[in-house]
Each structure stands twice: as structure tokens, then as C-alpha cells.
Design brief:
This protein is an alpha/beta fold. The protein is built from eleven helices and nine strands. The chain has a three-stranded mixed sheet with strand order 1-2-3. It is elongated and about 125 Å long.
Length: 417
């Protein structure tokens, strides 16, 4: 009855009052059953000592008794094996305790049979001391029950007191630490409730890691832990500056921490002085005073990264927050697109890296003419060289067509065309 109720209650889903579920019912049930078994063992020891030293009990052997005991032995053995398999399959301590209960029945029944047989033999060959075989065998069985029961009782008590399973914590820490993107596994906590494990992990990652990357990393950590033990996993991530962090990564992390968007970051070293330049994107509704305050705060932070030994220049520009509508003049824009495409395709003789340009698109939005296109370049070029060429091409187009406000070129290798 205890096992049935505990397994049924522990299977109830988590609720507001029990956010970790009801698995402790199973641990508590196993602890109670183990206690009852230990009490039974103590009673057996008491009776055995009484029969050995104080009150001898004469046993009358009976074939009928032995047959009945053998039948009971078969039933108990079958149930003990079935419960043991179920306990291993479902990781249930309540079922394990019930299996132990039937196992003790097997041992005690076996002892009774052995005791009766030895008493029978003693009477047949006139060996009176064999009459003590029954209480001595009972002491042996009681000792086995105490040993096995104490081991199970210790495990159930550990579960009730949230003790970490032996070796599991370090195994999880090693697996988490081997996950790509993790700088250090700072803490691992494991607790068990019934047949479920709950794992809390704290890891440190490079502070420049984006939120989406952190989420993907958390999923990877959960999968690694799940491969070790089925568990409800909570991952806490701490941003850290990795050893040997590059200046640009530190600046990007600083801007991200302040909630600022930057691009076109560059730095130069001249005469022992460091010069840092970047573009800062701010809310387009800010005044110059407010935008400059954000830029100054970022400048001071960058200087602190270098111990105050840095010259910082920040270009402030509005952060786009709305989708502009085109002004029309579609026919004129298509004509301009053809002219720009023809001009770009006349330049490969000047730029060995350039193969050709295509998909030129021109539109006018808010009185500004915007141009975009794709240019095929040699696929083995380093990206720095590609960037220099696209920047030069953009300048050439704006020089040839001064009405163009912005030119954006997407470079691609020939095999992607």
C-alpha cells in the first residue's frame, strides 16, 4: 500500500505549491519502508538471541511446512525480481525498497527451510547442537537485511536532504566545460526528487557574445547534460572578459553593455599613441546635447580600457527606426540604374579584382537617391581587399553621379552567381 500510494502521488505533475514536482514522496516512502525492514531485522536478532541464550524452542520438522515454504519462496523470488527490474527501469527508490522487502522474505524463507532441514538432520543423526542452526541462520539473514537496508536508507536520506549523487556533479561539470563557447564552469548543483534530477549550472562566456548565441549555448549545455542524465536543467550565464581579449571586442562589449550600437570601428597606433574611431548610432529623435552625452560616456569608457591612454573620435549618426516610402519617378530611376550598371561594367580594366556588376537597383526615398547592386569578384581575394575595392567603386559612382546619396555594393564570388 505504501509503495502504491507513493508511486501514484510522485507521478503527479508539478504545481504552484510544488514547483519541483512530487518526487520526494517516493524517496520518503523508500525511507519509511527501509526503516520498517530494519525494525524487522532488529526483531529477528532479538528473537535469535533469546532462542540461543535464554529460551530454547524445539522445532518439529514437517514435510508440509517445507512444501508451503518452497511455494512462498518461489512467489517472493518472482515478485522481487519483477520489482527490481521495474525499479531499475523507472529509477524508482520506492519500487527498489519494495523489491528489497520481498528479497528479505526470500532470505528469511530460505533460512527457515535450512533451519528445519538442519534440525531434522540433527534429530536423525543425534547431533543436538544442530538445533541452534535456525537462530544462527536467522542472525545471518538479519545481518544481510541490516547491511542492504542501511545502504538503501542512506541513498533515500541523501535524496531527501538534496545530497548530490556521487560523481555526477563532476561528470556534468566536465561535459559543460567542454562545450564550445564556455570559458569556465563556475558552479554545478544537482538534486534528485524521485526518479528525476534537477541541475543548476552557472557558466561564464565571452562578454561580447550575443543574446541569441547565449541561448544557443544554453541549449547545447542542456543537451550535453541530458546525454548524461535525464534532468530539468537551468543554465545561468555570466559575461566575462576572456584572457587576451582584443581591444575591438572589449569596445563592442562596452557599447553593448551601455545599450549603444556602433560600427566602422578602427584603430591606429602612431608615435606611441592609440587613436580609436567609430560610428555611433543614436535615436534619431535625440537632440545634439543628448546624443553627445552618450558619445562622451562611451569615449570615457574606451579610454578607461586603455588606462586613459587613447584618443577617441566618434561620428554620431541617427539610428534608422522607420521604413521610408519611395518618392516615385520610377522611369527615371530605371534609366539611372542602366547608366550606373554600364559605368560599373566599364571599370574591370581598372580593377583586376572586379569581374562584373549586375542587379543595379535605384530608388528615391525622402528626396535621397539610393543605389544598391551586386558585384562579382575573384573568390580567393581576402575580404579586406574586397572591402577596399567596393569602397573605391562606391566613391567612383558617387563621383560620376553626384545625385547619388548612398551606394551599397554586395560582393559575391563567381560560383554564387
Amino acid at each position: 500500500i505504501i509503495t502504491y500510494l507513493s508511486v501514484r502521488l510522485s507521478d503527479e505533475p508539478a504545481d504552484e505549491k510544488h514547483p519541483y514536482g512530487h518526487g520526494k514522496y517516493e524517496n520518503f516512502s523508500a525511507f519509511v519502508e527501509t526503516g520498517l525492514l530494519l525494525l524487522t531485522a532488529l526483531y529477528i536478532i532479538f528473537e535469535a538471541f533469546v532462542r540461543l541464550f535464554f529460551h530454547h524452542v524445539h522445532i518439529i520438522p514437517s514435510v508440509t511446512a517445507i512444501v508451503v515454504l518452497f511455494l512462498a519462496l518461489v512467489v517472493d523470488l518472482t515478485r522481487a525480481r519483477a520489482l527490481t527490474r521495474a525499479a531499475e527501469k523507472f529509477k524508482s527508490e520506492a519500487l527498489e525498497a519494495d523489491a528489497l522487502h520481498f528479497s528479505t522474505d526470500v532470505w528469511s524463507t530460505s533460512v527457515v527451510i535450512v533451519g528445519i532441514v538442519l534440525v531434522w538432520v540433527g534429530e536423525a543423526i543425534h547431533l543436538p547442537w544442530l538445533s541452534f542452526a535456525d537462530p544462527i541462520a536467522a542472525l545471518v539473514v538479519a545481518g544481510v537485511i541490516v547491511w542492504v537496508g542501511s545502504q538503501l536508507g542512506r541513498r533515500t536520506l541523501d535524496a531527501l536532504l538534496d545530497a548530490a549523487p556521487a560523481g555526477l556533479q563532476q561528470k556534468i561539470a566536465n561535459a559543460v566545460g567542454a562545450t564550445a563557447g564556455v570559458l569556465e564552469t563556475e558552479r554545478v548543483r544537482v538534486r534528485r526528487a524521485g526518479n528525476r534530477h534537477f541541475v543548476d549550472v552557472t557558466v561564464s562566456v565571452p562578454r561580447s557574445t550575443s543574446l541569441e548565441q547565449v541561448h544557443a549555448l544554453s541549449d547545447a549545455i542542456e543537451q550535453r547534460i541530458g546525454a548524461i542524465v535525464p534532468a530539468d536543467v537551468m543554465v545561468h550565464v555570466e559575461p566575462r572578459a576572456p584572457e587576451g581579449e582584443h581591444l575591438f571586442e572589449a569596445i563592442r562589449a562596452l557599447a553593448q553593455r551601455k545599450g549603444l550600437a556602433i560600427h566602422d570601428l578602427s584603430a591606429q597606433q602612431q608615435d606611441g599613441r592609440l587613436f580609436v574611431e567609430l560610428h555611433l548610432e543614436v535615436d534619431e529623435n535625440l537632440s545634439l546635447r543628448e546624443a553627445h552625452r552618450q558619445a562622451t560616456d562611451l569615449e570615457n569608457g574606451i579610454r578607461e580600457l586603455r588606462g586613459g591612454q587613447a584618443e577617441v573620435n566618434i561620428h554620431i549618426e541617427p539610428l534608422g527606426s522607420h521604413i521610408a516610402s519611395t518618392d516615385g519617378r520610377a522611369g527615371e530611376m530605371r534609366q539611372l540604374a542602366r547608366a550606373i550598371e554600364a559605368f560599373l561594367n566599364s571599370l574591370p580594366s581598372e580593377y583586376d579584382e572586379l569581374v562584373n556588376c549586375h542587379d543595379v537597383l535605384v530608388r528615391q526615398a525622402e528626396h535621397h537617391i539610393l543605389v544598391s547592386c551586386h558585384c562579382i569578384m575573384k573568390s580567393d581575394l581576402p575580404i579586406t581587399q574586397v572591402h577596399d575595392v567596393t569602397a573605391a567603386l562606391e566613391d567612383r559612382v558617387k563621383e560620376r553621379f553626384p545625385q547619388v546619396y548612398r551606394m551599397t555594393i554586395h560582393p559575391e564570388p563567381p560560383e554564387e552567381r
